[in-house]
Design goal:
With 404 residues, this protein is α/β, with parallel strands linked by helices. The protein has 17 helices and 14 strands. The strands form three sheets. Strands 1-2-10-7-8-9 form a six-stranded mixed β-sheet, sandwiched between helices. The protein has a four-stranded parallel β-sheet with strand order 5-4-3-6, with helices on both faces. Strands 12-13-11-14 form a four-stranded antiparallel β-sheet. The N and C termini lie far apart (54 Å). Keywords: Lyase, Pyridoxal phosphate.
Amino acid sequence: MTLTLDDVRAAAARIAGHLSPTPAVPAPRLGDMVGCRLHLKLENQHATSSFKERGALNKLLSLDDAARAAGVIAMSAGNHAQAVACHATRLGIRSTIVMPAFTPFTKVERTENLGATVELHGETLSEAAAFAHDLARRDGLVFVHPYDDPLVAAGQGTAALELLDEVPDLDMLVVPIGGGGLIAGMATAAKALRPDLRILGVQCSLYPAVRQALAGQPITCGGATVAEGIAVKAPGALTLPIIRDLVEDVVEVEEARLEEAVYLLATVQKQVAEGAGAAALAAVLNDPERFRGRKVGIVLSGGNIDSRILAQVLMRGLVYEGRIVRLRISITDAPGTLARVTRLLGEAGANIVEVHHQRLFHNVPVKMAEVDVVLETRNQTHVEALIRRMREAGYPTNLMVEVG
């Protein structure tokens, strides 16, 4: 079975009044970085901060009375779980979500708070999925697949209708790919309305299952990624042929580029994005020549990033920009020397965050000491000026690669 524009339009009519459209906003500062006119489709603005609500809601609204009375079940450790739980509860449908046993407690709690019954089973997503299918057969529940379902994919495609309604003259559309439901639905609608529109898919380099499948290569995926929302090891049987027919190319992005995209969305655009949600921007940053001079729409697919991960990404971004650095300064181990060093740094406009005074390590001569100083600075040029000032004052100073 495949999808049509009519399927997506039917989904849009079905979810209208249940789900508010999300905005498509220009991002001129981000666009200027790569020389294109950039527009962001803010799917992180849904109640559960993810596009997954579109497909889950369309599926739930399509159920007949008997299916609603029986209840639904889904397998997910992330955004799909919350989407199904949220809208099933709102519609008065009993929902069960199967999550792998390793799922962080915060995700379990959030899903339960949305009204679902959570079952923890298995060490992998595959084991959780098999258990969910077993429960569905045993209890007569409707299985709501996260991507390989025509009603789910059609629901995700409604994002393209909204985007092209707001920005009809796009040259390119860039969409993250996990299992392929979002890009299959959006490409179906977008290519029907705009056959000349170029559509690109993006995968993280650790989980390039769709790109490998399209190339006829063995699928080899694995590893820890900041883009866990698209860390899918098997493309959908429904979605893969649609991607093959309608998507111009599927590209990969490395972890460092994903982190950069999360950082820039937060600091430049003031938008919180999870790693998967920032993947489309990461692809644009990774290959600016491909997008230069064009009007580009990218899907910010979700904003459910762990606060600790976001904090680390922001701090690492500050380090990369030279706004937080660690200097190692050699001094004589004499009274007053450390005070003179800190005064010099302050006079040069650096804000001292941490100071570590080392006498016993790093093979330091007995009459010398080393001071590791973590500083807030303006930029790389400021850092270079600080190092030069300290050396001219007689204090050998080196920039350390990492902070902490």
